Predict the structure.
Amino acid sequence: MSVPARPSARCRTFLLELSRYLDGDLSPARRRTVERHIKACACCEEMAARLRRTMAVCRAEAKRRTPRGVMLLAAKRIRALMAREGLQPVATRQRRRHASET
């Protein structure tokens, strides 16, 4: 099913609430209104289905552990950026503070 390039003004109102609807953050009355519209509107039904799939993929990825190599490269890059800006990592600052207190 293809989604129109420009949803109607009425659909845009519902699409703005779609994420809150899928998260269960709407009042019961507003939720029923959005559900009725989604069931009657192919455009919004397709957008809801797409957003549900996107949310499911994001949730699944959030459960995966970041590979150690990626974490090490990220830490190295962060240290390089901080050094370039003349900043020190928090752990380094805490060690120096503790050493000066003794």
Q: What stands out?
A: The CA atoms of residues 3 and 47 lie 8 Å apart.
